[in-house]
């Protein structure tokens, strides 16, 4: 055939030379006779994309065939993509062969798409459609192959009427909207119509078991990285209950979830939901099932409030991860266009069926036709979206890598500028800024954000002399006198030290300007406090770490209410000030005062964590660990803020801190399970972590009494039969479970940039530090019955299961009740309890006679806890209700009901316990030890000591006589 010359646009010299070097590498390794007619095109492509070069290096003759046939000159249609994928996988006789051929199909068709995209042969609409169609076909055809293969061995899943049941795959996000990135993960949800069992095999299996196994294999086939690469990264976190939920569920369970548990952010996600490739009645039924959850019958103005909250979360993430160069997130990014469209869809889609589309560009056109946003230029918004998506694809097409971040290196900048048709990088930045500005203006108009630059308040004007351009000692001291600051000398010394440090820091013009503008506001707020000289060091301790983080200075500058919250909290608690100083990203939490002083509802922590973690790449372990720590710190800050404001009683503070720990523990167990199962599979018959293992909380975790700095005393057990795991690299089940605990410990205790999540203590397990990390429940029971010391039974009183399935939880509850209700000799029990208490006092009590240790001294917390444990262990057999609770308050309540204590005694113990804990919490918030003057709590101590003597007087005398002799 005759090759027609193509006039490619001239590239910068550095790119031309790079393309020529890449061509030379190709010729050094391969016979390129068939490629010579296309040298100019290939050198141009190599200059722009390492992915295109790599494919040619791997398969030069195949690429020559594609070029000679002219197939790369035409767009890929959906039927052609389906045909190409089918041809590639035809005849696959095993899963490894299928995996290889799927990767080959993806590589060929991805080459076609990126070639046309980067060389300017395709518009963005073509690229989005082709990329989505490629994902559709690979997922659908892989599922069909695997379904047939599994059905041959396990039988066909069927309903009660004998009808075969398919796996329906819901594409979410950009896949659902048929606007997938050229290099993207795929968000999926698996479901099937009806429960039942398999038919046609020797052994019947539950449909759920069949579809879970099918889903696991499909994820493996697509996700696993082999010598040929991977097909798609699969993200299943949008399914009901996220990673802690079943991998697949029937329609009925799906409907129940969205009716009773679905959250507002899941409505946003479901706008894009699309059943891949299935136009059967089942697919229609599924769509009808989901519609009422997504679209309300009335005009739903709450959509905009949800949008504002989601916007705030994204802004926090941009600051936390320093993502300013990200074209997806931040002001004027892709996400803002998506939010505008989805907000209108959720608000009016219940009445306007035309707004229920999944494709964003088509939705923008419908919004314009309906005049749903009359003051918004929808064409400008659509053009901005096309530009941003084109730029996103340029960034990803270079290496077939998922990224939305502009490069820092000049050569990579030249590449992206050339792909975008710009002569140089600055031209691209100017174009990008223009498009972002148009998008952000529309977004701001839609959500009702009102920017405002107000005149400084009088207090700020009065504080201006405290932050002069050049330090003036007399001026600063005189201003302090005018403002009536007590201990002004200390105030001036601390301020001058900070002033000198700030002048030496290299901030840059923008950062310096932000600092000079915000400091008078900071100092004005400090001067309004009751003790400015005491408050100033804490506030400056927060400002200093962010001197070079201009975005945080600007956050305080643009949000005076947040700045006032900062000063107020630093005044109230040095612990909070320390948290803010070590973790500046927590400043984002100050933006919403109403939310700051209102901790999350106890039942909502799990969902908030799930929503938060969806924004983190599932494969990025480091970012996952950072995000978990930030979530904990942010919610601890809210709890502490409500605490110091007097809005939470001590028991409620502990309830929140305990629930927060429970959901983070739950997430880490599931994450550890997920990481291990990818490599080794799972124990036979186990599909999730909570089926397999249980976690017991002891001490403060078990007693629902966690404090701000508490560690977690935990023990793992399981009820798994011996065997090996089901994966490609199977290991012994016991080894798998030990690795699970080790991986969990790594997630919890590794000290990252944001610190550790929790310190955990596993030494309460059978045989302590020398025992197995995880034991079978039978072994745990045997140890507790035959080997455990009395103090271990005391610890068991405070134990409860904090993770595990219902059967595991019930099994432990039964064992705990059996052990704590064993018959005991009361005199021997009292002797062991008192001896242990004496030992603790001797080692841990206050050595200063002028101080009272809230926990360890006589009449303190430990005495109260030992009384509770003695009552449960001593009277549990005769009065089983004594074993109902693991927390001290309800134990004393039950003891009074059973007349083991008088009402007055129980009340005295409860009141003293709450007073001590409340004081301990507030000392912790001031970063002080749990010790007070010996003159405090004298009445409470005497009452506790009197009750101790009432119970243990004979035992105390016996010990005294024994030691005297």
From TrEMBL:
One Gene Ontology term of the molecular function aspect: [glutamate-ammonia-ligase] adenylyltransferase activity
InterPro entries noted in UniProt: GlnE (IPR023057), GlnE_rpt_dom (IPR005190), NT_sf (IPR043519), PII_UdlTrfase/GS_AdlTrfase (IPR013546)
SUPFAM superfamilies: Nucleotidyltransferase, Nucleotidyltransferase substrate binding subunit/domain
Domain Glutamate-ammonia ligase adenylyltransferase repeated: 40-284, 564-812
One Pfam family recorded for the sequence: GlnE
Reaction equation(s) it catalyzes: [glutamine synthetase]-O(4)-(5'-adenylyl)-L-tyrosine + phosphate = [glutamine synthetase]-L-tyrosine + ADP; [glutamine synthetase]-L-tyrosine + ATP = [glutamine synthetase]-O(4)-(5'-adenylyl)-L-tyrosine + diphosphate
Annotated segments matching region Adenylyl removase: 1-457
Cofactor(s) this protein cannot do without: Mg(2+)
Enzyme Commission number(s) of this protein: 2.7.7.89, 2.7.7.42
GO cellular component terms given for this protein: cytosol
Matches recorded under CDD domains: NT_GlnE_GlnD_like
UniProt region (Adenylyl transferase), positions on chain: 465-965
Record key words, sorted: ATP-binding, Ligase, Magnesium, Multifunctional enzyme, Nucleotide-binding, Nucleotidyltransferase, Transferase
GO biological process: regulation of glutamine family amino acid metabolic process
Residue ranges of every copy of the PII-uridylyltransferase/Glutamine-synthetase adenylyltransferase domain listed in the record: 308-446, 836-946
Superkingdom in the source lineage: Bacteria
Keyword ATP-binding attributed: yes
Similarity comment: Belongs to the GlnE family.
Function, as annotated: Involved in the regulation of glutamine synthetase GlnA, a key enzyme in the process to assimilate ammonia. When cellular nitrogen levels are high, the C-terminal adenylyl transferase (AT) inactivates GlnA by covalent transfer of an adenylyl group from ATP to specific tyrosine residue of GlnA, thus reducing its activity. Conversely, when nitrogen levels are low, the N-terminal adenylyl removase (AR) activates GlnA by removing the adenylyl group by phosphorolysis, increasing its activity.
This protein's name: Bifunctional glutamine synthetase adenylyltransferase/adenylyl-removing enzyme
Gene assigned in the entry: glnE
